Amino acid sequence: MECTSDRMRKSMENELCLESVIKQVYGGGGNQPLGEHGHILLDSLNLDNIDDFIDKELRKASQVAEMSMHLNENRGIIGPEKVIFDVSSNVGSLVIDRDRLGLSSQSNFSSIRGNCCVYKGKWQYELMLGSKGVMQIGWATINCKFSQEKGVGDTPHSYAYDGHRIRKWNVSTYKYGESWLTGDVIGCAIDLDKGVIGFYRNGNYLGDAFDKVQIGPGLAYFPAVSLAYNENLVANFGSTPLRYPIAGYSPLQLYPKKDIAQTNKLLMWLEKLLELYNSVTQEPNPVLVVRNWPPQYKQGLKSQLLLVAAPLMHRLSPLLANAFLTEACLT
């Protein structure tokens, strides 16, 4: 009987310890509902209902992010969610990476455009230069016809910057910008509300390149580049956070706001849990919530923390497999 009683007492202590850890990680107790009627209360959280609680909180975070996305529904862009270079638009000979973001020219002058276009609003994308030679980068409409002699900026309704020759191009060419180097990040920005195109080198604005860009019905601009032989670059249309985001401008590829909201929520909980774990395993003076617990609570606390971590990691691990979320949420 005594052994049975001891086991029951030990089981109750472990349960109390586990519930205390859960409450500490998810908000420290309280009787306020965490959502609409019927949602789990913090005081009733335990291993049996923690999965349901986490999923409901993640749905709430996604709904908030979704509301902000709906405010910008008519954004002025046409194309798929994933923005890459459109292989079918290739003129010349290009070696194109599997992700369709990296390019290397194998002909005299090769041109290609992205698979989306914009017709209103303010937009940007970035190019990381893998070489420093002749390249004309910028924006073009679908009606621009390129060849191995004519590229972006050599036709009407196309606008380009070339940092090798330090010039801008729109049929005519004029001095503009500054010399670029291998490894530079060149930002290409277009304001279709004002009809202005400008370029950035490593976050520094080079000034308005064109201030009379034709806008209006029937005119939509694609990101487009032309590369001389052996020149190469990698584009970022928004698949990872832009290196130098411009205030008021949007990347061509939508940030995954719902996934970001969920990842940040999970990381917030995980951070609290790690503080408790470090308090138990490393710090000579554990945090107050642990220090004030009875000695029997501290026994087996590592195991309890791992149990609480399991449902978090189950949801967080797939999200962190996404390069954008890793860079956006962990840096």
What's the arrangement of secondary structure elements?
Layout: H1 2-26, H2 50-70, E1 77-78, E2 94-96, E3 102-105, E4 109-113, E5 117-118, E6 122-129, E7 135-140, E8 158-162, E9 167-170, E10 172-175, E11 185-191, E12 196-201, E13 204-210, E14 222-228, E15 232-236, E16 250-251, H3 257-281, H4 288-291, H5 295-298, H6 301-320, H7 323-330
Parallel strand pairs: 6-16
Antiparallel strand pairs: 1-5, 2-3, 3-15, 4-14, 6-11, 6-15, 7-8, 7-14, 8-9, 9-10, 11-12, 12-13
Helix pairs in contact: 1-3, 1-6, 2-3, 3-6
Q: How far is it from the N-terminal to the C-terminal residue, by CA?
A: 56 Å
Number of strands: 16
Strand content: 15-25%
Helix content: 25-40%
What is the global morphology? elongated
Strand and helix order: HHEEEEEEEEEEEEEEEEHHHHH
| Radius of gyration, whole Å | 27 Å
The poorly predicted ranges are: 4-14, 28-40, 285-297
